[in-house]
């Protein structure tokens, strides 16, 4: 990466981190000034990845919609959060290199695959409502997932077994270079 581009990327990364910190502090100050301290918790920020927030609602929605598959480690929230952190890092890379946009038909197919995980349209709609996600948000998530998949296919065109190792190493490098604030603590 040319030095000038690297400096710009580092500056933007610092600005995003600063913006996330200001948002968290501003929200806390507002809540304290309004007497919300002992009020109801609406949502919980579990991580900040290069300025992007990941909330408990995001984790629950990803799990409830079947967008991620947690391991059998016993801590579903930790597993899903880790996958969402990785997804956010991948998406940042995808946005830097801009693979081709998926077709509307491909996005429709992915949304339909999510719908088919539920026994009825009502059950699907109930999960969307409970998660605070509308169909447009789900479509955007599916579009992003297809872009990530296309990027990985383009960048890591090796055997499946080798690909898992190479992508894992790549993600570990992204995690080392990224600003990640992981706020999730078991039992809190």
What does this structure look like?
By secondary structure, the protein is mainly alpha-helical. It folds into 2 domains: 39 residues; 137 residues, Porin chaperone SurA, peptide-binding domain (Triger factor/SurA peptide-binding fold). It is built from 7 helices and 3 strands, in the order H-E-E-H-H-H-H-H-H-E. The longest helix is centred in the first third of the chain and has 31 residues. The protein is globular and about 40 Å long.
- In the sheet with the most strands, the strands line up as 2-1-3
Computed Rg:
18 Å
Name of the CATH homologous superfamily of the largest domain: Porin chaperone SurA, peptide-binding domain
| Envelope shape | globular
The N- to C-terminal Cα distance equals: 41 Å
Please identify the structural class as seen in this structure: mainly alpha
| CATH T-level topology of the largest domain | Triger factor/SurA peptide-binding fold
What fraction strand? 5-15%
DSSP summary: helix tally = 7
Identify the notable features of this structure and list them briefly.
single chain, 188 residues, mainly alpha, Triger factor/SurA peptide-binding fold, 2 domains, 66% helix, globular
Topology:
Blueprint: H1 3-33, E1 45-49, E2 52-55, H2 56-64, H3 76-97, H4 104-115, H5 121-131, H6 135-155, H7 160-177, E3 180-182
Antiparallel strand pairs: 1-2, 1-3
């Amino acid at each position: 990466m040319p030095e000038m581009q690297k400096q710009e990327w580092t500056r933007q990364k610092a600005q995003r981190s600063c913006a996330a910190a200001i948002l968290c502090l501003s929200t806390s100050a507002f809540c304290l000034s309004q007497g919300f301290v002992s009020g109801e918790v609406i949502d919980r920020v579990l991580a900040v990845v290069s300025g992007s927030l990941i909330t408990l609602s995001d984790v629950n929605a990803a799990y409830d919609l079947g967008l991620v598959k947690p391991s059998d480690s016993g801590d579903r929230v930790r597993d899903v959060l880790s996958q969402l952190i990785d997804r956010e890092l991948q998406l940042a890379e995808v946005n830097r290199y801009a693979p081709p946009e998926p077709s509307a038909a491909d996005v429709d197919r992915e949304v339909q695959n999510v719908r088919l995980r539920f026994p009825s349209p009502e059950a699907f709609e109930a999960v969307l409502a409970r998660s605070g996600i509308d169909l447009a948000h789900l479509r955007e998530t599916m579009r992003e997932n297809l872009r990530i998949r296309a990027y990985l296919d383009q960048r890591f065109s090796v055997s499946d077994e080798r690909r898992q190792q190479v992508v894992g190493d790549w993600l570990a490098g992204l995690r080392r270079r990224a600003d990640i604030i992981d706020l999730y603590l078991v039992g809190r």
